[in-house]
Amino acid sequence: PEAFKGAFQQFVTSFRSVSDRFVIEWNVNIGEAGMDPESAYPGDDYVDVIGMDFYWFPEWNPVDPVEAWDFMVNRHWGLQWHQDFAEAHGKPDAYSEWGVSLDNAGYYIEKVNEWFDTHNVVFHTYWNSNGAYPGKFSDGQYPTTGAAYKEAFGLSGNQP
Fold it and tell me: Helices then strands (H, E): number in the chain?
C-alpha cells in the first residue's frame, strides 16, 4: 500500500505540474479480497473523486436480484462503505465500471439507478463487454436486462 500511495502521489504531482485541469479519480474494486482499500488511499490532496467498480456475476454473488443488490450494498467494502468513505473525505463518488451477466436483472438495475440518483455520483460507466465475463447489452445478449437498463437510464434507440 505504501508503494502504491507514493506512486499515485507522484503521478498526480507530475500531472498537476503541467495543468490544473486534471480531475483525479482513485478507484477500487468492490470487496477487495485480502486488502483494506483504505490502506492504499493516497490522501485527500491527491484525489478529487473516489471511485469503485462493481459487477453482479452469479459465480461470485447471490443469483437472486434482491439478495444480490443487498449483498453489493452491505458486503465488506461494498457500496455503503464506498459511499461512507467518499463522504468522510468530502469527495464525490463515481462508478468507473459496473455490470451484470444475467437476464433477470430488472430489479437490480432499478436499484443501481436509485443508488446513483440518491448519492453524490458524478459519473458511471456500464461495462458493455464480453471479456472475461459476459455483460454486453448492445448485442442483445441479455434482452430483458438490456430493456430494464434502457428504461432505468432513459436510453432509446441502439444505445447500450
Answer: 5, 4
